[in-house]
Write a structure and sequence with these properties.
Belongs to the binding-protein-dependent transport system permease family. Pfam families: BPD_transp_1 (PF00528). Keywords: Cell membrane, Membrane, Transmembrane, Transmembrane helix, Transport. Helices cover about 85% and strands about 0% of the residues. With about 200 residues, it is mainly α. It folds into two domains: about 1-55; about 60-195, MetI-like fold (Orthogonal Bundle). The relative contact order is 0.10.
C-alpha cells in the first residue's frame, strides 16, 4: 500500500512538473507572438534551434570545455584551501578569532573589484579567471565547514576520548563524517558561485 502511494506521489509530481513546463512554454509562445520581435522575445522553437546549434558547434563545445576546466581547477583550489581552514576554525576558537577578521573582511569585497589586481598578479590568461573562481568559492566552503564542525555534539568527542581514540582517529571518524553534510553544502555553493564568477 505504501509502495503504491509512493508511486502515485512520484507520478503526480512528474505530471505537475510537465504541466508547469507546458504552461510556461504556452505563455512564452503567446507573449512572443504578441510582441512580434525576436530581439525582445524570440519564439521557443527559435531558442531550441539555437540551443541545438550551440551544442553541435565544435568551437562552442571546445570553449565550454575550457570554461568547465577553469571552474573545476578553481573549485579544487577553493576546496584545498577552504576545507582545512574551515576545519581548524571550527574546532579551535583561538584560530577562529585569528582568521575570522581576515575572512570576514575579504568576503565583503565584490568579486569584480579583484579583477585589476588579478591581472597584475597573474597576467592575461587562465590565472586571473581561476583565481576569481577559487576566491568566490572558498568562502562558502569555509563558513559551511565551520558550521558543520561546531554543530557536532561534545558527547561524540567525549565518547571517542573515553575509548582511547587519538586526535587523528577523532578527526577521521568523528569530526569529518559528522561535518560532511555541511561540507558538501559548501562545495555545492562553491561550484555555483564559481560558475557565476567566470569572466
Amino acid at each position: 500500500m505504501n509502495k503504491k502511494r509512493g508511486l502515485n506521489k512520484k507520478f503526480l509530481d512528474a505530471f505537475y512538473k510537465i504541466l508547469l513546463f507546458i504552461v510556461i512554454i504556452g505563455i512564452w509562445q503567446i507573449s512572443a507572438q504578441r510582441i512580434g520581435s525576436s530581439l525582445l522575445l524570440p519564439m521557443p522553437m527559435d531558442v531550441f534551434h539555437g540551443f541545438i546549434t550551440c551544442i553541435t558547434d565544435p568551437e562552442i563545445v571546445k570553449n565550454v570545455l575550457i570554461t568547465m576546466q577553469r571552474v573545476l581547477k578553481g573549485f579544487m583550489y577553493a576546496m584545498g584551501f577552504g576545507l582545512p581552514l574551515g576545519l581548524i576554525m571550527g574546532f579551535s576558537s583561538t584560530f577562529e578569532k585569528v582568521f575570522s577578521p581576515v575572512v570576514d573582511s575579504a568576503r565583503q569585497v565584490p568579486i569584480m573589484a579583484w579583477v585589476p589586481l588579478t591581472i597584475v598578479w597573474f597576467g592575461i590568461g587562465d590565472g586571473p579567471t581561476i583565481f576569481l573562481i577559487a576566491f568566490a568559492g572558498v568562502f562558502p566552503i569555509i563558513l559551511n565547514t565551520i558550521q558543520g564542525v561546531r554543530s557536532i555534539s561534545k558527547d561524540y568527542y567525549n565518547a571517542a576520548k573515553s575509548m582511547g581514540a587519538s586526535p587523528f582517529v577523532i578527526f577521521t571518524n568523528v569530526m569529518l563524517p559528522a561535518a560532511l553534510p555541511d561540507i558538501l553544502t559548501g562545495a555545492r555553493l562553491a561550484i555555483s558561485t564559481g560558475w557565476m564568477s567566470v569572466i
